[in-house]
């Protein structure tokens, strides 16, 4: 490794954000500067792709530096197959969000792009952090720019939406902080790789799991903690919605996968039925509510609740297909839902309304727009050959492999996705406008093509050739599951040795270390 | 014993500033002179800070062992000096103090700061008491100085009455400690048994003595004065009273923590006070509209957070408490700095006074946002690091329940701190006349604001060196 790639990916947008605020720049210069920073960020991320070893399931591109040695805090970064994809997605979205905001954002341009750059840095940091406190720092740091994106550039109800978003997510993550402190005292370290190797007492795991799971469940968001999401999505500007859907929600599922499963395996196993039930409710509930919406953004927002339900379901099935599917859905939802939110922003710029009835019959004069929209909508409900199909199919296979009843309950959820997406797509393409106003809106321009085309290419690429993505994911997913299985097996063995004692009591007295 | 003057250079430097102000009070009684003849004060305060920083490594004992110069005292003296630099810039232009009174007012605050410096070195209970009174008496006189405002008189009376009560309790407690343990020296007291069963008299005495310090810190149940006094006194005086005395109290509490171990009854009582203080302070702050009153209640909550480090009774905990005291000074001063700048007319600002602040002054809005997020404990600010150290130390000492209470309280606090940022960044100002559109800040205040905001951020990302100093300060105090 020639240079600290991950640090660069965090500090380049940070430095750019600082320069943006310091240097006197006009509006166009600000946009161009951020766009070029985004391209530079992508170029800087290329060595991550080329240098990543597909055969290794462990952490790669490790960077380590002491931070607060008195408490054992370190500035430690690395990626495995799961976080690599999330880092790449975060990096890819920077220039795309700049492009989709080019004419959408007209006030306080400098501050807006400042927030975008900060968000990118924080998102890369969250997925690359190998120290729990560092993870928490990035986790919380992205709250402020996201809050401002909604509160300053949002819609008419932005105040309500932004406060709700901030309060929900921060209140949840304060318990995450308590869990981090508890893990430090139990494990003696904040280092994530070291903590992954430890086996904690079951009772301790239970409390840590509950504290972490609440923070992650709010972020995902899982039913019934999802109420902040539709409000935030609807009110946020297009770029805000894209970042929210594509990256922020993934932080919750990433947390489940990275921390809950391997660090609290017994508690994960104990709570799995509840988590699966909530996931299934999220899928069905999200789909049903999406079906009844008339606000396009709200439809996509509720569809996110359903899609993220697939992710948590896949995670808590504890089998390879489930975990693979979960990561695939994380990635694909990031691509497709991000694209759909861009498309909503795009039509909103023309109609100044997100109401479905104001955006009917676009197929007549915006064929290219509807082409892209159709593609992303098809992908969103898991049309075979497109990217989302792969992840959802894997989760469904895993669900049936785990329990037929679960699989059978989830199937209607997948069908609901087809129903609300087809309803949306058909009405937008061929619906008859209520008032016969002339809607001669221009079709996609070059800039709009520029940010939709890369996402469309990814939709086809991952959908038709999911092999490479799966090869990136599989070793890391296997390693996580291996950690989980080893630890739960150890617990089972200990339980057999002391059958007369209550499970939690017996386990709370021992702390074992080891892989 | 040889008197080494170098040991008390920071105190002497600050006393010299007070003496020069005294001379000024005698020389200038003309209104046009009062601002210009105190123009040197921030420079003098900076010099005191320089001397305090240079004296960081000094070590020794004076006045028959009652006055200890060590890492802890020097750390807090430097923090007090830093706070005095900022407050001196703020209070010098206090428009609510009549021009004739200005030099006297500044002298009183300087003497109060001097008393706080003495508190941080006092290692004998009666010396602590005397130092505390030096600091308090000056503030008793300074708080009612708010031109033609009845609220100031009320605030002054409340501060004096509550202060007198706390003083009486502290003195009464001292007599009980003396009766029970036969010494007032902290080092000797640290070797005594502080279990309730073996020395109930001394334990009660210590609790009563601590009440005096809790008054300074505005910790439950001695917090009642705090919101009323902040609301009643002038904005600039409130900035001083809300921050500086807390440092002195924190220094003494860290020293007295040598007497407290996590399994003692007294420690449990303090832990309970800490928990109630956090909860009551935060819940009360939620309903406030007056910014200074909100900050008053929030300081009650922060006194509780500080208590986390004290009750943990470990080196890490004491270091965390010292670190947080410094961080709190910066965060709260930054908030009050904005309050003072926003309320140019000297009136008490409300949340709506902050509307559209980002347009009127991006710097003020930025400093306010940094301070508010730091007070919440959001990374990457120093407030987060301070809270992390405190929570970690309390958990390690077996106060898991207290950590959970603190964490839940952080969640409550989010709302009212976020309101500050919301009003500054997302609300539009109702004022349309040109005068309401911008704030014109001088170079000094701008520099002070920028330095505070950057310090809060810098202490968040690079906390290690300062925390190291704080831990060194805590080391050696424990048995």
Would you give an account of this structure?
The complex is a heterodimer of chains A (515) and B (479). With 515 residues, chain A is mainly alpha-helical. Chain A has helices at 5-22, 27-51, 81-100, 109-128, 132-141, 143-153, 158-187, 192-196, 202-219, 228-235, 238-263, 265-291, 296-315, 320-351, 367-380, 387-402, 404-430, 446-464, 467-497, 503-508, and strands at residues 60-68, 73-79, 198-199, 512-513. In chain A, strand 1 and strand 2 (73-79) form a beta hairpin. Chain B is mainly α and 479 residues long. Chain B has helices at residues 9-27, 31-36, 41-54, 71-91, 102-121, 125-142, 150-181, 186-190, 200-217, 225-232, 235-256, 265-286, 291-312, 315-342, 357-360, 362-376, 382-396, 400-425, 443-461, 464-474; strands at residues 60-62, 67-69. In chain B, strands 1-2 form a two-stranded antiparallel sheet. In chain B, a hairpin with a 4-residue loop joins strand 1 (60-62) and strand 2. Chains A and B meet through helix 5, helix 6 and helix 7 of A and helix 16, helix 17, helix 18 and helix 20 of B.
Name a few traits of the molecule.
heterodimer; A: 515 residues; mainly alpha; two-stranded antiparallel ribbon; 20 helices; 4% strand; disordered C terminus; B: 479 residues; two-stranded antiparallel sheet; 2 strands; 72% helix; globular
Write the layout of secondary structure elements.
The complex is a heterodimer of chains A (515) and B (479).
Chain A lengths: L4 H18 L4 H25 L8 E9 L4 E7 L1 H20 L8 H20 L3 H10 L1 H11 L4 H30 L4 H5 L1 E2 L2 H18 L8 H8 L2 H26 L1 H27 L4 H20 L4 H32 L15 H14 L6 H16 L1 H27 L15 H19 L2 H31 L5 H6 L3 E2 L2
Antiparallel strand pairs in A: 1-2, 3-4
Chain B lengths: L8 H19 L3 H6 L4 H14 L5 E3 L4 E3 L1 H21 L10 H20 L3 H18 L7 H32 L4 H5 L9 H18 L7 H8 L2 H22 L8 H22 L4 H22 L2 H28 L14 H4 L1 H15 L5 H15 L3 H26 L17 H19 L2 H11 L5
Antiparallel strand pairs in B: 1-2
Helix pairs in contact in B: 1-3, 1-5, 3-4, 4-5, 4-11, 4-14, 4-20, 5-6, 5-11, 6-7, 6-11, 7-9, 7-10, 9-11, 10-11, 10-13, 11-13, 11-14, 12-13, 12-18, 13-14, 13-17, 13-18, 14-16, 14-17, 14-19, 14-20, 16-18, 16-19, 17-18, 17-19
